[in-house]
Design brief:
426 residues; 13 helices; 42% helix
Length: 426
């Protein structure tokens, strides 16, 4: 393993490697298009001739990670991912919850021998279609016209536990997605460098997305439109998935909760590593503040006060304490990554522990190959302070020099500015 140490004051390398790991946990265009095709197919299937819901599906739209551009490979082996979809129905809002969920389940499942018959699962608040490499969660909702746009009732019923009361809850995932995007605008310097890092890598080219019949699937958020906050949210989700891997049936912190705190804390730093440390610290402080008072954290949708992101997790103070312990470890390791004496071998070990072996090994292999090539060809360039100039040395991707080096001098690399400056409100 390469044991090269980073020169004093050099933080750019960790930003580059974090960005490369983040790049490798994105859905590839192939995966995204497959998800979109399946989304469209289910939409058509719900309104097929003879469907119990024919003519009753008024809107069909993505929610959650897909709506904010934060979908990632869910599992540590990069093979599984999920899509959350809202199915807006034109039915009486007081329809019993079990009836709503059951009719959606029967509609998706179809007749014996149909494509979804053996892969459809009826769950507490949604219906899930399972594929070998992904799953789609379909949540039925009924619009509440007098509220903010697309606020609706969602339905809760757990047939395996008759003691748990059925009910309905107000939610507005569409509004939350819009709020998140508005609060995490892309920083052009970061987005440009992130895009250049991906140049020439098979499977990450831009693509046009197919559209669904009712509500279009949003185009996959291009790498050139990623904000640092969004990328750190994806890295945090990956850490969460990695940490809770192997705990089947155990609830984990919900993505909307993490996304909400992420957006509330966005735009305060200059580099990706700084942003990740800051975001983890903000998340930790929110949980610690609640825990110190003997309370469970309470976070709601900024676009719908009744839409509680913490209604089912954490279940108790023990679950909350366990997550706090994890965040303490996460923050410590990110801080260690940014320290001057953390060499490449230790950085790789830390990132593999946080984000999984698969994307980390690939990112470090690519970096070491580019570094070796720069040394062999005489392209390795350092500034007067001894820091490697990632752009001119060819370590940051095709054409990255413009995004990673100062135009004022051919010899210096900017301190803490590899991925652009601090975001300022427009």
């Amino acid at each position: 393993m390469n044991m090269i140490h980073r020169p004093a004051g050099q933080f750019d390398t960790v930003d580059l490697l974090l960005a490369d790991v983040a790049l490798r946990i994105q859905l590839s265009p192939t995966q995204y298009k497959l998800a979109t095709d399946r989304y469209n197919a289910i939409n058509d299937w719900l309104e097929r001739d003879g469907s119990p819901l024919a003519g009753l599906v008024t809107r069909f739209y993505p929610q959650g990670s897909m709506s904010i551009g934060a979908t990632i490979s869910s599992s540590v082996d990069n093979e599984d991912y999920d899509i959350d979809v809202m199915v807006e129905l034109n039915i009486p809002p007081d329809t019993p919850s079990d009836v709503v969920l059951d009719v959606l389940y029967e509609t998706v499942r179809g007749e014996p021998g149909s494509r979804y018959y053996k892969v459809t699962e009826r769950r507490t608040r949604c219906v899930t279609v399972h594929y070998a490499d992904m799953h789609i969660d379909l949540t039925p909702t009924v619009l509440v016209p007098e509220r903010r746009p697309l606020t609706g009732w969602i339905f809760h019923h757990k047939p395996e536990d008759p003691q748990e009361p059925a009910g309905r809850y107000l939610a507005n995932p569409w509004g939350f997605g819009k709020w998140y995007r508005e609060n995490t605008p892309a920083d052009q310097g970061f987005a440009t460098a992130f895009a250049r890092l991906a140049e020439g890598r098979s499977g990450y080219e831009m693509m046009a997305m197919a559209k669904a019949d009712t509500e279009p699937v949003p185009e996959q958020v291009p790498i050139t439109h990623k904000s640092m906050a969004l990328v750190t949210h994806q890295l945090t989700k990956r850490w969460r998935n990695n940490r809770y891997e192997g705990h089947k049936g155990k609830r984990r912190p919900p993505s909307p909760l993490l996304a909400c705190i992420n957006a509330q804390s966005a735009g305060m730093t200059n580099t990706l590593a700084e942003e990740l440390e800051y975001q983890v610290d903000c998340l930790l402080r929110r949980f610690e503040d609640a825990h110190a008072l003997g309370r469970l954290i309470y976070v709601t949708n900024p676009e719908c006060d009744e839409d509680e992101f913490t209604d089912r997790w954490p279940s108790d103070l023990d679950a909350q304490a366990e997550f706090i312990d994890g965040l303490l470890d996460f923050r410590f390791k990110v801080q260690r990554l940014r320290e001057e004496d953390c060499d490449l071998a230790e950085m790789q070990a830390i990132m593999a522990d946080l984000f999984g072996e698969h994307p980390t090994t690939a990112a470090f292999k690519a970096y070491n190959e580019r570094l070796g090539n720069a040394v062999q060809t005489g392209r390795l360039t350092t500034g007067r302070d001894g820091r490697i100039d990632l752009g001119r040395s060819g370590l940051a991707g095709t054409g990255a020099a413009a995004a990673t080096t100062s135009s004022a001098s051919a010899y210096t690399a900017p301190a803490h500015k590899f991925f652009g400056g601090k975001w300022e409100p427009q």
